[in-house]
Amino acid sequence: MVYLFLANGFEEIEALTVVDLLRRADLQIKTVSIMEERLVYGAHGIGVEADILFDQGDYDRCAMLVLPGGMPGTTNLYNHRALNQELKKFYETGKPVAAICAAPMVLAKAGILKDHKATIYTGMEAELLDAEHAEGSVVVSGNVITSKGPGTAMDFALAIIEYLKGREAADAVAAELLYGGCHEV
Q1: For a Cys staple, 158 with which of 5, 31, 109, 183, CB 3.0–4.6 Å?
Q2: Range of the domain at 164
Q3: Is residue 183 part of a domain?
Q4: Residue 159 within any structural domain of the chain
């Protein structure tokens, strides 16, 4: 199971592209609201009903945690103490975490990006703190996957699929979508 976290102000393209592509790859993914209710509104006013609330998650049985960016969604993710504790615990046990757009700063502030290569939304590089900034639409460094922004959401989702199921599975989803972009990791 993969959990993708939603907070008011999330970037819709980044969140929903990941959910869509992972489901096409037959990966189980649930959207998780960190708000008090399941209905969460994106940065562009699109309402999405999350599958579960944060407290309903079974984090011990989860395979990966994913953070979409967007503002103020990223700030809301960062301010959610229980999510940040879960991210640290998850990472420290060797499980993968992924973040796109502004959300890599949540990982950086939690100390997760120390000694990793990472990317972030252009202009926010200073938010990577102890990470080594790397160019590219997607950067995979150990058990951490980061990506730049809405325009890289397909590459980000395909990199997650490749990490969890292999290159062949990612290529199959890309072919099904007639996607000719690069998803090198």
Answers
A1: 183
A2: 2-176
A3: no
A4: yes
Annotation marks residue 101 as catalytic: yes
> What strands, in cross-sheet order, belong to the sheet with 29-33?
52-53, 29-33, 2-6, 64-67, 97-100, 144-147, 138-141
> pTM above the 0.90 mark?
yes
Q: Is residue 152 part of a domain?
A: yes
> HSE of 33 in the Cβ direction (CA atoms, 13 Å)?
16
| CATH code assigned at 79 | 3.40.50.880
For residue range 82-125, what is the model confidence (pLDDT) as tens digits? 999 999 999 999 999 999 999 999 999 999 999 999 999 999 99
Catalytic site residue from 97, 101, 157, 173: 101
Statement: residue 183 has pLDDT above 80: no
